[in-house]
Design goal:
homodimer; alpha+beta; Mth169, Chain: A; three-stranded antiparallel β-sheet; 2 helices
């Protein structure tokens, strides 16, 4: 069974985020003066095979711990759904 | 009124995604052999002020068009919610 996980990787509170600060400064200088903060993160859409929801969830958790997120500085969360469509080149 | 927008910026279908391909290769070599595809994107959490939901939505749309996403190669989507909590240093 094919699964599609949308993984959100965000910096933990308190970790400096120069990318977010730069984007916030850029938005303010473009006229969006009420922007108080931007936090930047990563989004990964992972397509993979697993037998059932529990196995898929465990696999995503392991992927996050081993590669997708740095557990010291980042937090990962994900949405998981069964992918009914036939495999395509692009999601 | 303070709003919090979670903006997802993803590459359009058909645009090459070397970061996603590299992550997919890394996951496979770590033993997640059923990973068929990874698409990488960006996640931006933007805190800003706007009078109402319509104004906030228009502001996020303008931010995406002008800075957050490259409309030629990327697609932006967002969730918007009113932020009830007092302003904090980190989200």
């Amino acid at each position: 069974m094919r699964w599609l996980a949308e993984v959100h990787v965000t910096l933990k509170p308190g970790i400096a985020d120069p990318e977010g600060q730069t984007v916030a400064g850029g938005l303010r200088s473009l006229g969006f003066e009420t922007v108080s903060q931007v936090r930047a993160g990563k989004l990964m859409r992972v397509a993979f095979e697993a037998d059932d929801h529990a196995a898929a969830d465990a696999a995503v958790s392991a992927m996050c711990g081993r590669l997708l997120a740095n557990p010291v500085m980042e937090t990962a969360s994900w949405d998981l759904r069964a992918d009914q469509e036939p495999e395509k080149e692009d999601m």
